[in-house]
Amino acid sequence: MATPAPASKLDPLVSLCKRRGFIFQSSEIYGGINGFWDYGPLGCELKSNIKQSWWKTMVRTREDIVGLDATIIMHPAIWKASGHLDTFSDPMSTCKHCKKLMRADQTWEMLADNEFGAAMTELHAAGAPELGRVTAWCKGRGKGIAPNLAAVRNPDGILAVMGASLAGATFRNFVSLLASDNLVTPVQPCPYCGGELTEPRPFNLMFKTIVGPVEDPANIAYLRPETAQAIFAQFQNVLATSRQSPPFGIAQMGKSFRNEVTPRNYTFRSREFEQMELEFFIRPDEAIELLCGRVTTLADMPDLTTPQDNWGWQVWHTYWVEQRLAWYRSVGLPAASLVPYWQQPAELAHYARACVDIQYAFPFGIQELEGIAARSDFDLTQHQKHSGKSMEVFDEPLKLAAAKLDETARTAFVERVVADWTARGKGADEARAFVAKLLDGRYIPHVIEPSAGVDRMALALLCNAYAEEQVTDDKGKTETRTVLRFSPLVAPIKIAVFPLIKNKPELYAKAREIFGQLQRRWACFWDESGAIGRRYRRMDEAGTPYCLTVDFQTLEDGTVTLRDRDTMQQERLTVPALKEKLDEILLG
RNA sequence: GCGGGUGUAACUCAGUUGGUAGAGUGCCACCUUGCCAAGGUGGUUGUCGAGGGUUCGAGUCCCUUCGCCCGCUCCA
C-alpha cells in the first residue's frame, strides 16, 4: 500500500547546491516559502557571471543594442495595455470529481465542443425533455461520456424527483440540474466528466501591492510579470537619447514576479525570478520593400552572420534564434542538449507571427530556457492606443525612398499592401492609413523578443555541469568524485590558491602574495586547511576550473603547479604565463 | 487548488511495543603531511519542519498547518 516516493532526479544536485552554498530555500528558518529561492555565495557568483556574459554579448559588444534598467513597479495602466491584467486574472474552477482546473468562463464553450455537450444538446432538443430518454442515456452511454454527472451516478433516484423542473428548462439549466446532487440548485458541470465544478475563484497571476501608505483600491499596483513592458513604455525616451534607429534593440535584465499556480522542479518555476530580455525593433517589411526594392526572406537562404538592411522580420527572427543558440553554447551548454522548438501556428499568441522556444534537456524533462517571439507591432501599438502617445518613429531614408516613386509605382505599392493586409484579415482602411504614414517615413516598429530566464539558465548550467565519476587511486581504491564541470566563463570561482604546506612561513607568504595578485583579476579562493587532495576535491564540487599550488620549487624558480579540474593533470608554469593563459580562456 | 509520498545535525541517514536522540560524512583547532576526499588528537552542531491534542511521559499516536518530492494546469 505504501508506495515509496519516486526520487527526484534533481536530488543529488539539490543536496550539493545546499551543501556548497549555491542555492538555499528562501526563509528556511521559518519553514520556507513556496516558490522562492535564495542564491548563496557560489550561486550568486554563478548568476552574476551568466548575466555579465549575456550583457557583454548582447549590449557591450554590439553597436545596435542599448541597455535599460526600469523599475519593478510601474503604472498599472501598463498592464492593462499589455493585456496582462486581463489574461493573468481569469477566474478558475476545479472539478470536484476529476480535479481538472479550467478557466470558468470557458466551461460552456468546452462543453459545446465535445461529445458530452453533443449528447446534452440532443436530449434537450426534444423540447420538453422526455424523462425516459434521459434516464436511458444516463444508464447507458452517459456512463462513458460523463461518468461523474449526478444524474449518471444516480439515474433513478435523481431523475424521478427532477422530472418537473427539467421540463421547459433552458439548455444550460437543463445540464446544470442534471449535474446537481441536491436536485434543486443548478451546478456548473465539468465539461470533461460532468462532475460538479467549484465556484469560480479569481486566479491572479500578478502580485498586487499598494503604492503609498493608504490602502485604497485606487492605489493598487503590480510587481511586473515581465521586464519587457518597461522597454516599450520607455521606447521613445531611449530612441530620442541613444541616437539609435531601427533596426536596433533595447536590453534589460531584472526581477519579475508571477504567482505561479504550481511552482515546481526546484528553481525552474519560481514566483520571483530574473529575466534577460531584448526587444529588437525592426522596420516593417513594407518599409524594407520601399527602401530596398524587395524583402529578403528565409527562402533566399540569407547568410545570417551579419545583419543586412534588406532583411524582413522572418530573417531577423531566425537570426536571433541563431544568435541566442550560439550564446548558450558559448557558456557551456552542449549543442546536443539544446532543443529549439518552433511553435506551430495554432499555438501562437494572436499577436505573434512566430515563436521559437530554446529548450534544454533537464533531468525532469525538456523545458524552456528562452522564448524568441516575433511580436509584430503589437506591443507598441497597444501602448500608443492606451497612452495616447505616439510610438512611431520617423525614418528619413524611408521618406526619401518613398519620394522617389512615381505616381504609378506609388499607387501600385499602396494597392499591393492593401491587398496583402486584407488577405491577412485586416481592414482596408487600416492598411491605407498605414501606407500613408509609411510613405511619409513614419511607422510603428515591429519587434523581435528574445526573452531568457537567468534562474533557468543557472539551473541548466548546474544540471549540465554535475558529474559523478569513479576514480581509482594508487592503492587501487575506487571512490566517487563529484565535480561541477562549469565552463570557466561561468564558474563562480576561477582559480583557487593553495600553499602546499601551511606551516612553512616562506611558502605560505609566497602563496599569499600570488593570491593577492590574482584576486585583483578574478574570483579567487584561498584554502590552506587539510591535505592537498582534499582541497582539490572541495574545489571540484564548487566547479572551480583551476587550482594553483605553491610548493618549494616556487621559492626557487617562481613556477607554480596548475591543476586542471577535468583532467586532474598538473602543469608547471610561471605566474605571468599563468595570467596570460587564464586571460586567454576567461575573456570569452 | 486536488491526490500520493515525505520532513531527525550543514549533508546522507538510523532511531525497537511511546521512556527524554545516534552514526557516517562535513566543518573547526592542533600535530603530521613534497600533490588528489591521507593519518593522529581534540572539538562543533539539533525548537526531531511548525502549532495544538492524548499521555505521568511523544521523534514515535491523533488533529491542524508549512515546506519539499511525484502526478494534473503554466511557458522565463
**How many beta-strand elements?**
24
The number of distinct structural domains comes to 4
Briefly note the CATH topology name of the largest domain. BirA Bifunctional Protein, domain 2
- Note poorly predicted spans: 1-5
Question: Any idea of the CATH class of the largest domain?
Answer: Alpha Beta
Q: What's the average pLDDT?
A: 87
Helix content: 40-55%
Number of helices: 24
Question: Hey, roughly how much beta strand do the residues contain?
Answer: 15-25%
Distance between the termini: 55 Å
CATH architecture descriptor text of the largest domain: 2-Layer Sandwich
Radius of gyration over all CA atoms, rounded:
31 Å
Q: Strand count, sense and closure of the main sheet?
A: 7 strands, mixed
Assign an overall shape. globular
The fourth-level CATH homologous superfamily of the largest domain is Bira Bifunctional Protein, Domain 2
Order of adjacent strands in the largest pleated sheet: 3-10-11-17-14-13-12
* Oligomer state of the chains in this structure: single chain
| Class inferred from helices and paired strands | alpha+beta
